[in-house]
């Protein structure tokens, strides 16, 4: 079916460029002559669940990487016999991301969070929010500088940031501390 060919071309573009193609690019990809045809194609892709739209109408990819099978459990203690059995499938996006429109990734630089098992070169999946609970790992603007640390409140009720490495000191804002996001997951590639 021609629709499936169009869909695969758009998905391939997304995987290669890490962004949704624009109307002109889609016209070139699939050979359409009008933006109206692209509009109808995109609506069909939304109806099929390939994309969702955020509150501003921006297209957000959905389920473009498929699902991965969950084949069983692995013992992290003493070795046991294991049998491979298809338990379920899981979409990595669905497992890690609650709010796709407010979620993004950042690459970690530095060693201040190593005791939280977050190392330089890791990727952190974060969700935009200005609200944090004590103990959340946050991305915060402190007096004009950005950092990732544990969010804490001192005995006087003042917020501060605590590293997960005893070689680093707590960070108390001189003027302000603004939480921008909360870390939801750490991704490390071996």
Q: Could you characterize the architecture of this molecule?
A:
Helix content is 23%, strand content 28%. It contains four helices and ten strands. The longest helix is centred in the first third of the chain and has 16 residues, at 2-17. The radius of gyration is 22 Å and the shape is extended. 14% of the residues are buried.
Neighbour order of strands in the largest sheet: 5-6-10-7-8-9
How is the main sheet built?
Answer: 6 strands, antiparallel
List the uncertain runs. none
State the helical fraction: 10-25%
User: What is the average of the pLDDT values?
Assistant: 86
**Number of helices, counting only DSSP H or I runs of 4 residues or more:** 4
| Total beta strands | 10
Q: What is the C-alpha radius of gyration, as a whole number of Å? A: 22 Å
Shape, please?
Answer: extended
Proportion of β residues? 25-35%
Summarize this entry quickly.
The chain has helices spanning 2-17, 23-30, 35-48, 92-96, and strands at 51-53, 59-61, 68-70, 88-90, 103-107, 123-128, 137-142, 145-153, 159-162, 177-187.
């Amino acid at each position: 079916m021609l629709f499936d060919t169009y869909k695969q071309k758009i998905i391939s573009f997304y995987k290669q460029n890490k962004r949704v193609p624009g109307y002109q690019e889609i016209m070139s990809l699939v050979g359409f002559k009008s933006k109206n045809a692209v509009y109808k194609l995109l609506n069909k892709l939304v109806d099929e669940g390939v994309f969702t739209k955020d509150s501003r109408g921006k297209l957000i990819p959905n389920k473009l990487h498929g699902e991965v099978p969950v084949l069983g459990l692995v013992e992290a203690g003493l070795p046991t016999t294991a049998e491979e059995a298809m338990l379920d499938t899981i979409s990595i996006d669905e497992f890690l991301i609650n709010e796709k429109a407010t979620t993004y990734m950042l690459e970690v630089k530095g060693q201040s969070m190593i005791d939280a098992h977050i190392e330089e070169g890791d990727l952190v999946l974060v969700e935009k929010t200005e609200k944090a609970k004590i103990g959340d790992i946050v991305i915060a603007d402190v007096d004009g500088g950005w950092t990732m640390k544990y969010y804490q409140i001192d005995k006087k009720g003042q917020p501060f940031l605590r590293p997960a490495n005893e070689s680093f000191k707590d960070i108390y804002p001189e003027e302000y501390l603004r939480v921008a996001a909360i870390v939801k997951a750490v991704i490390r590639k071996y």
